[in-house]
């Protein structure tokens, strides 16, 4: 168990930069997820940490020890890390026991110790009864557990996961998420986990590193990321469907909601009250984002302050069992995506009212360019 | 682990650079040096084994200006082109029949068409002498008796006979090159033909054949290239009055006293020239074939052409081929080996096992069997080991110079065995290696490295790299990963490569005939000795012995090690 420090790490393939100047500190015992779409460099940086890809710039330190940097490349077998691969990579010519014992045999541990440790590791992943089976006789989920046992049995300083659940079916995937998280809290290893699935990242991580185009987009706890995406990419990737360009028109600093004007596609002059733009200089441009579940839909005109209320028509309503996803067009032509309870029984064509509380908006300032 | 990065950082590149150096040295001595010495030898004068050789262009001048050699050059080209044309025609027909029609038992028929690949063309040639020689061939004798003919019907000891036997043994080569193109062709291309209103015949003629034409063309040139270098068949059958191909000229320059090694090398250069032209055309044909991407990932069964009653004619063709290439020759060999006298009447035969007794008690034969088995075990093992090393470096590392390794490893494919052996002779005649079994081992390792490394290379490509990465992150070094993960996982392809090289080695004669010495006799050369003395009965027995060894190896491989022989 050890900390991990990436300092300005770059990985270059010919002319293509897969990772560009990435810096990150991971504390001992932390579970950090690298999240991002395919091609964002998350697997590349994981492989660079393992030593499977050479870095072309920057430094990597594990537990303070420099393992990659200018003129230094500690080979993977000497880094004291281990990895669980997306395709499991369970060796088909060895039994379950042979797979898990491999790393210990390489280290020439005494036979009794190997047997005990492999048994412990297999018990930890619930495969103690399968130790003589061959990989080809196991299901995908079982193979993944073998890969996991093989990775933890060598007591690595860092445990690396490369989309380990993406080849499993949906039900098993959710079960394994919880199991992996529990396992992590039990063995307390520093873990770096790569995934493209945001809910997986949310469930498992202490911190999430959102990556885009070979660089870090945003780092934070799952909650920070979910509630406060700081870029349009982050908001989109984290599944926020309502994104509107906007301009702050008034912020008085008196505690009353500040007002911003939504200005996309001819929807000029639609003013909304937004908590998060308090104190922001009027005239500032940015994007406002609202999650679908924060868009409240009702059939009767709501009472109260009357702030941020629209009347509109349901254009599309999709029944998804536990919820209904709908697209609503307001009378002033604003398109909103909302998530409602099925009991509301929305169907296309229904006239409805829409309310968005001022605290539901996320403000993403547009970088001046 | 106070400062692990210092030693790890240095030791890894050093070990891999050292490994690279060892492989490079091996390839240099096995392949590069002999190839250079083909040219060097051709520009020398004097006896190779003395130090009294001097530079001279006489031999090359002789070969490239004398009418005898020039006509042999043209004749060799003509011979190999006609063999290739005939073999590829028949092979295309078989490939189409077995890939595109509803012939019954196609799997079994494919097996018997490919079987001659594993048999020795040299032994086949001997069998055809006993079958169809002018005066005592079983066919002539029997047919003459039955129909009361006064003149012999066929004469295998002729140029036509050489073409006949060569075509027989090159049909499977053509088949394995053409068949995949037909099998992997996107069936929707043909279906589109049917939907445009073309029937099976016109779809075949207008769609299928044009699409597989590049594959057929490349098969044609490859067969021509291999045929140009074959020594054994024309040597056995090269009768009176026929022309002498370049390969036989090389043999004569070495075997007929006074031995003229420079001349052998010079003729070898002429043969190389021929081969290079052929290979150039082959590469062009292959490049053209990559333009026609006919392979798709979809797993649809292609629509099969219903041959109706003609199906049985198709089966008869396949079975007929197998009879001519395998059944008839080996039946003849067995018959000749157990009849004490020349066969004059098939109804009045006497049988004896005398020749077997004679051959199996001869110390010369036992020595040859021993040598053949020794070489048959050592050469494939070393060859496959080297092939694994080369393909590992090429496929799995980024060491500089790995492309050079790849080129060196495939280079011998362009050099006929007998020519390569002449280069080997020139390179090592003055070293202690010469006249030992080991120079034979070396020449076989070099000659079959291209085949072996192609097989091990494709085997390696099938292993997911992640399986090796997993071992590395578990703490295994590169060497450990190779020995514990990569090699065990590629065992099937390694065993296939081993068996393949074993077969080629045991039956090899083209190179052995140049490099053997009386003390390092192998079975194929011993068989040749009997042929030279005109003792075809003993040759038949020796040939059968060699075949038995081959079959034994194949059976052990197939049933003990469960090797897949056909790929």
What does it look like?
- The complex is a heterodimer of chains A (369) and B (567).
- Chain A has a six-stranded mixed beta sheet, sandwiched between helices. A five-stranded antiparallel beta sheet of chain A has the order 2-1-4-5-6, covered by helices on one side.
- In chain A, strand 1 and strand 2 (16-26) form a beta hairpin.
- Chain A has eight helices and 21 strands.
- Chain A has helices at 42-50, 96-106, 111-124, 140-152, 170-187, 198-204, 222-227, 232-237, and strands at 4-13, 16-26, 31-35, 57-62, 65-69, 72-73, 81-84, 158-162, 190-195, 207-212, 215-220, 242-250, 258-262, 270-274, 285-290, 296-298, 309-319, 324-330, 335-340, 351-355, 362-365.
- In chain A, helix 2 packs parallel to helix 4 and helix 3 (111-124) packs across helix 4 (140-152).
- With 369 residues, chain A is an alpha+beta fold.
- Chain A folds into two domains: 4-233, 3-Layer(aba) Sandwich (Rossmann fold), CATH 3.40.50; 240-365, OB fold (Dihydrolipoamide Acetyltransferase, E2P).
- The relative contact order of chain B is 0.13.
- With 567 residues, chain B is mainly alpha-helical.
- Chain B has 24 helices and two strands.
- Chain B has two domains: 67-241 and 302-345, Orthogonal Bundle (MetI-like fold), CATH 1.10.3720.10; 352-566, Orthogonal Bundle (MetI-like fold), CATH 1.10.3720.10.
- In chain B, a hairpin with an 8-residue loop joins strand 1 (44-45) and strand 2 (54-55).
- Helices cover 74% and strands 1% of the residues of chain B.
- In chain B, strands 1-2 form a two-stranded antiparallel sheet.
- In chain B, helix 2 (58-65) packs across helix 3, helix 2 (58-65) crosses helix 12 (261-291) and helix 12 (261-291) packs across helix 17 (417-428).
């Amino acid at each position: 168990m050890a900390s991990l420090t990436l300092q300005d790490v770059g990985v270059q393939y010919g002319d293509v930069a897969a990772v560009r100047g990435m810096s990150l500190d991971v504390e001992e015992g932390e579970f950090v997820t690298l999240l991002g779409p395919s091609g964002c460099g998350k697997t590349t940086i994981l492989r660079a940490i393992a030593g499977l890809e050479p870095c072309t710039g920057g430094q990597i330190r594990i537990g303070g020890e420099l393992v990659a940097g200018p003129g230094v490349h500690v080979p993977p077998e000497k880094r004291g890390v281990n990895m669980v691969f997306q395709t499991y990579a369970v060796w088909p010519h060895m039994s379950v026991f042979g797979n898990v014992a491999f790393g210990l045999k390489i280290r020439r541990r005494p036979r009794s110790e190997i047997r005990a440790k492999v048994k412990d590791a297999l018990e930890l992943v619930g495969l103690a009864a399968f130790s003589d089976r061959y990989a080809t006789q196991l299901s995908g989920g079982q193979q993944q557990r073998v890969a996991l046992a093989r990775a933890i049995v060598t007591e690595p300083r860092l445990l690396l996961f490369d989309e380990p659940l993406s080849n499993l079916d949906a039900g098993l995937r959710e079960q394994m998420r919880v199991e992996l998280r529990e396992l992590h809290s039990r063995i307390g290893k520093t873990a770096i986990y790569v995934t493209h699935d945001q809910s997986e990242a949310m469930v498992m991580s202490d911190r999430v590193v959102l990556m885009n185009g070979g660089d870090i987009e945003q780092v934070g706890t799952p909650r920070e990321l979910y509630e406060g995406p700081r870029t349009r990419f982050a908001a989109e990737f984290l599944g926020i469907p309502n994104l509107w360009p906007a301009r702050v028109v008034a912020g008085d600093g008196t505690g009353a909601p500040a007002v911003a004007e939504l200005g996309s596609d001819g929807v000029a002059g639609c003013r909304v009250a937004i908590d998060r733009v308090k104190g922001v200089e009027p005239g500032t441009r940015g994007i406002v984002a609202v999650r679908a579940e924060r868009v409240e839909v009702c059939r009767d005109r709501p009472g109260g302050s009357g702030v941020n209320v629209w009347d509109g028509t349901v254009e599309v309503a999709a029944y998804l069992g536990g919820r209904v996803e709908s697209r609503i067009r307001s009378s002033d032509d604003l398109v909103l995506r909302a998530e409602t309870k099925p009991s509301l029984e929305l169907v296309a064509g229904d006239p409805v009212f829409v309310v968005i509380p001022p605290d539901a908006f996320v403000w993403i300032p547009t970088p001046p360019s | 682990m106070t400062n692990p990065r210092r030693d790890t950082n240095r030791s890894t590149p050093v070990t891999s650079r050292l490994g690279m150096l060892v492989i490079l040295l091996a390839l240099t001595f096995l392949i590069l040096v002999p190839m250079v010495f083909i040219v060097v030898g051709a520009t020398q004068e004097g006896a190779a084994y003395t130090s009294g050789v001097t530079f001279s262009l006489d031999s090359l001048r002789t070969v490239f200006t004398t009418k005898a050699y020039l006509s042999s050059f043209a004749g060799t080209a003509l011979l190999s082109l006609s063999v290739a044309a005939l073999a590829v025609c028949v092979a295309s027909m078989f490939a189409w029949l077995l890939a595109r029609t509803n012939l019954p038992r196609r799997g079994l028929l494919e097996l018997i068409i490919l079987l001659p690949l594993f048999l020795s063309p040299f032994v086949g040639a001997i069998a055809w002498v006993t079958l169809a020689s002018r005066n005592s061939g079983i066919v002539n004798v029997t047919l003459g008796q039955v129909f009361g003919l006064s003149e012999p019907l066929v004469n295998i000891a002729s140029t036509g006979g050489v073409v006949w036997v060569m075509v027989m043994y090159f049909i499977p080569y053509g088949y394995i090159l053409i068949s995949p193109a037909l099998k992997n062709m996107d069936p929707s291309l043909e279906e589109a033909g049917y939907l445009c209103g073309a029937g099976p015949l016109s779809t075949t003629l207008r769609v299928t054949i044009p699409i597989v034409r590049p594959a057929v063309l490349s098969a044609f040139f490859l067969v021509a290239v291999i045929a140009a270098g074959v020594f054994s068949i024309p040597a056995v059958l090269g009768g009176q009055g026929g022309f002498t191909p370049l390969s036989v000229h090389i043999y004569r320059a070495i075997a007929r006293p006074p031995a003229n090694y420079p001349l052998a090398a010079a003729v070898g250069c002429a043969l190389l020239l021929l081969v290079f032209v052929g290979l150039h055309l082959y590469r062009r044909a292959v490049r053209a074939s990559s333009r026609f991407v006919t392979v798709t990932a979809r797993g649809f069964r292609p629509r099969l052409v219903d041959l109706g009653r003609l199906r049985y004619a198709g089966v008869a063709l396949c079975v007929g081929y197998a009879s001519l290439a395998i059944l008839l020759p080996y039946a003849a060999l067995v018959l000749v080996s157990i009849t004490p006298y020349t066969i004059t009447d098939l109804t009045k035969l006497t049988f004896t096992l005398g020749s077997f007794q004679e051959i199996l008690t001869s110390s010369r034969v036992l020595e040859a069997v021993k040598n053949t088995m020794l070489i048959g075990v050592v050469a494939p093992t070393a060859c496959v080991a080297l092939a694994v090393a080369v393909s590992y470096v090429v496929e799995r590392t980024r060491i500089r110079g790995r492309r050079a390794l790849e080129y060196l490893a495939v280079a011998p494919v362009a050099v006929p065995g007998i020519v390569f052996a002449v280069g080997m002779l020139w390179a090592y005649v003055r070293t202690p290696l010469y006249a030992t079994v080991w120079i034979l081992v070396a020449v076989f390792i070099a000659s079959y490295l291209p085949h072996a490394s192609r097989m091990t290379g494709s085997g390696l490509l099938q292993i997911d790299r992640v399986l090796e990465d997993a071992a590395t992150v578990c703490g295994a070094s590169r060497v450990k990963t190779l020995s514990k993960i990569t090699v065990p996982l590629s065992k099937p392809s390694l065993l296939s490569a081993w068996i393949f090289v074993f077969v080629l080695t045991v039956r090899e004669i083209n190179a052995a005939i140049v490099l053997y010495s009386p003390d390092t006799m192998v079975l194929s050369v011993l068989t040749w000795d009997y042929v030279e003395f005109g003792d075809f009965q003993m040759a038949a027995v020796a040939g059968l012995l060699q075949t038995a060894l081959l079959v034994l190896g194949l059976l052990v491989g197939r049933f003990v090690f469960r090797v897949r022989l056909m790929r």
